[in-house]
3-aminobutyryl-CoA ammonia-lyase (Micromonospora mirobrigensis), 132 residues
Amino acid sequence: MSELDPRVGLTVTHRRYVPYSHAHYAGNLVDGAYALGLFGDVATEVCIRTDGDEGLFASYSDVQFRNAMKAGDVLEVTATVTRVGTRSRGIDFEARVVCRGRPDRGESAAEVLDTPIVAVTATGTVVVPAAA
Ligand SMILES: C[C@H](N)CC(=O)SCCNC(=O)CCNC(=O)[C@H](O)C(C)(C)COP(=O)(O)OP(=O)(O)OC[C@H]1O[C@@H](n2cnc3c(N)ncnc32)[C@H](O)[C@@H]1OP(=O)(O)O
């Protein structure tokens, strides 16, 4: 049963600075696909830890763009295993902004946010090779 598997609940966290070279829209916003790239990377570490393989992303059942991600942000990206199938693993994702630029205070001014801003959440499925 999936819920009894000790891999359920495993959380992997990546931190990433968003370079200004990734600004894509007005207001230094990055494109939504940038978050999916981050989710793919953190899911890859999940697969390495659960199954000793990088795995393949099969599908997203949900993606919510809740707040903008901007160039200059420091992001915390988490992936939590919610289900372990035979070869599939269900994962919940969250990308939150933990630091942000303060251009009103100076070109390079920035601050640690008291409360992280949840930018993107998603639910997806990765598939790993059959156990040997
Ligand atoms: C995490 C990665 N390292 C980062 C990436 O982003 S990889 C790049 C993007 N992904 C790809 O390029 C993958 C392309 N897709 C594939 O290669 C295949 O479709 C697949 C490997 C994902 C699945 O193919 P296959 O091995 O033939 O699947 P099945 O034998 O039919 O099923 C195996 C289990 O996977 C579940 N499953 C299959 N397709 C999906 C899907 N679209 N959505 C959700 N789940 C899927 C299927 O239910 C089986 O589950 P169980 O083994 O019963 O648990």
Residues 32-51 form the longest helix (20 residues). Helices lie at 32-51. The chain has one domain: 2-127. The pocket of LZJTPJHO is lined by residues 40, 43-44, 47, 54-59, 85-88, 125-127 (CB under 6 Å).
